[in-house]
Amino acid sequence: xxQVSIKDIADKVRDLxxxxxxxxxxxxAAALRAARxxxxxxxxxxxxxxxxxxFEIAGAEGLPMCQDTGISVFFVEMGREVALxxxxxxxxxxxxxxxxxxxxxRKSVCHPLKRINTGDNTPAIxxxxxxxxxxxxxxxxxxxAGSENMSRLKMLKPAEGVEGIKSFIVETVREAGGNPCPxxxxxxxxxxxxxxxxxxxxxxxxxxxxxxxxxxxxxxxxTDLLDMINDLGIGxxxxxxxxxxxxxxxxxxxxxxxxxxxxxxxxxxxxxHKEAVI
Length: 278
Fold this sequence. Notes:
By secondary structure, the protein is α/β, with parallel strands linked by helices. It has two domains: 2-20 and 65-143; 146-271, CATH 3.30.1330. The chain has helices at residues 6-22, 26-38, 42-61, 88-102, 145-148, 161-176, 194-204, 216-230; strands at 2-4, 71-79, 82-84, 125-131, 136-143, 152-156, 184-191, 245-253, 260-267, 274-277. The strands form three sheets. A four-stranded mixed β-sheet has the order 4-2-5-10. A four-stranded mixed β-sheet has the order 6-9-7-8. The model has no long low-confidence stretch (mean pLDDT 97).
């Protein structure tokens, strides 16, 4: 059994919070640069150039890419041969507390009814799974409200099938328009239950942008959906063009014979995600 201190976890989470806010991951940066080269709309190309300039300045000067530094969402894979000297949730929340303070990041978490700010961007949202091994893999996805508010979940009838899934996803993006700051990355969860498909959709956003889905049917569906979404003409920041989405990523899970849950979680062009292994 490997002993891990919660202080080490808090230190790592603190660094991840700051890095995620200021340093765009290489996969997203590469996708944005490739999109600028392919974009046919002059205005769309110019907007993509401004987006790229923004994240380059943020990284060089250690500044947040966006004023909305998000609510901290974590996916933690805990090795079953790891023993902690305290609660995992306390370690993560302490890391978030310190990261948002030390990084001068906007604290956006509040009570849902009273709307009183908690003052330190906690509590974080934490999804934990137990895996083999003696390591802890921590993935963070700070989620801004502009894109999160455009996300949707629908319990489709099984008879609606793949065409129903496509229709719901494309209509969700059409209704969102320029609100989620496109070009977006679309995380889609299919199957499971009401809550499971939503978690799958959020988890799908952590996949490196543009990587192939290992399931051939889902990979084909991702390709079809990306073409359909970019045919909408919403374009970068809603100003028109071919680049409405950089990628569509789908996670699926078996579901009940009488239901077909589908969740769409939209991520803005600042596809913030970082991870570390302890």
